[in-house]
Amino acid sequence: MRIPFTAVLLVILYLNAAPGPVLAEDVPAPDPAPQADTVAAKDPVFTQEQLDQMLAPIALYPDALLAQVLMASTYPGQVSEAVTWSKANPKATGDDAVKKVGNQPWDPSVQALVAFPQVLATLGQDPVWVQRLGDAFLAQPDDVMGGVQRLRHQAQAAGNLQSNQYQNVTVQTAPAPAPASSGSSTQVVTASSPPTTIIIEPADPQVVYVPSYNPTTTYGTWAYPASPPAYYPPPPMYYPGSALVAGLAFGTGVAIVASLWGDCDWGNNDIDIDVNRYNNINANNRITNNQNKWQHNAANRDGVPYRDSRSRQQYGRQLDGATQRTAFRGDDAQRAQARDKARASMDRAGIERPATSNRQARQQMREAQTGNSIGNRMQPRSDNPRATERRQETRNTQVRQHNNQVNQRRQGEGQGRQLAQNRPSNTAGRARNNAFDGVRSPSRTSAQASRGRTSQSFAQRPSASRAAGHQISRPSAPARRGGGGRR
């Protein structure tokens, strides 16, 4: 059957007007793949299991003390130095201890921890844990703060976190998110309750009690049996007759006024700074009112490497240009002037300048080995008469010492040869009297064999005479000569 041409035309027009299949060129191009650095930055450095394990020993600290520990842990090298200082000064506590370390080149967050020697005693038991804690807070602040709240809820559910005469524990409800400003009537509202935040504060704002507890039992059943938290026993000297309240031990309180100047901002997962308290205790390093948020200072890291690439990019000291590199090394005009002044003083005193290059240092070493120099790079210069005399006297002393050593060595060798000559002449013969003695002397060997046969025949004759019943006559012993010697 033949189809009319008009019908075919109508079908073609209908197909062109109808929405057709989606072609490849109609699909918008996808966004370019993220760079490797971006992907690495989004990957968590620590898992939730690892975070809970490292946060368990400090999650129940008061908020202000917890904030100081988190800030200070980002400078693990300085924390170790503070631990050493605290051990040497065990009675220094509170604001007085912080003022004593005001001249130390430590970050103010580290200086604040010397007010609590019991905390430093705990941190000093595991420096690796301290560094991991600081790396986690720099790389994953939201996860760290969330992990602290998760652990606090577990301790509260187990009945081991409650208010008492040492601390106040409050639960705050976070405000519900504001509805979206959309005119659509199909907005979805979740029915789940908003999260809660547990806040721990000292019962007396000017006296802080540091709790001590066993994290393996305080949080109830640990969610990760294969990775239990570490328990760092408290130092007994700071917990004499400690009171045990709901699984927490409280020792001697620490009186403070301005030592704790940080506090946890749970809404933004960072740390707020009380500027007034900070400036009262850190007189040598004051800040302004707009510096009320904590920022990590990479200069106080003291060369400790950062764990993740994002932290290395953000806090690493990337100095571009020769000027910045020179400033980092400290080669400024003041140092150059001091160096020139020191060299001029050495010239006036007749002291040889130190080597300024490896080649010059090797040349001085060769001169010292060949005797052309005394080997001291502070050697007097030869253009000074007194220096020349001192050098000549020193060389003469060295020559005399060398000659004495040679004479002593030669004298010892002569004594050794004299002892060898005084040895008995038969010593060598006795040394050669072994199993192979006489092998090269047949006549001597036959004489020894004859003496052996004769002695054997004499040994057999007495027994035969006894068997025959004959009397055996023994030769009399020869008379002694000398009669005991002349008196």
TrEMBL record:
The answer to whether keyword Repeat applies is no
Question: What are the alphabetically sorted keywords of the record?
Answer: Signal
Q: Report the domain of life of the source organism.
A: Bacteria
Region feature (Disordered)? 292-487
> Where is the sequence biased in composition, kind Polar residues?
312-326, 355-382, 419-428, 442-463
Annotated Low complexity bias: 395-409
Composition bias type Basic and acidic residues, residue spans: 328-351, 383-394
Pfam families with a match to the protein in the record: DUF3300
Keyword Signal, does the record have it?
Answer: yes
Signal peptide residues are: 1-24
Q: Which InterPro entries match?
A: DUF3300
UniProt protein name: DUF3300 domain-containing protein
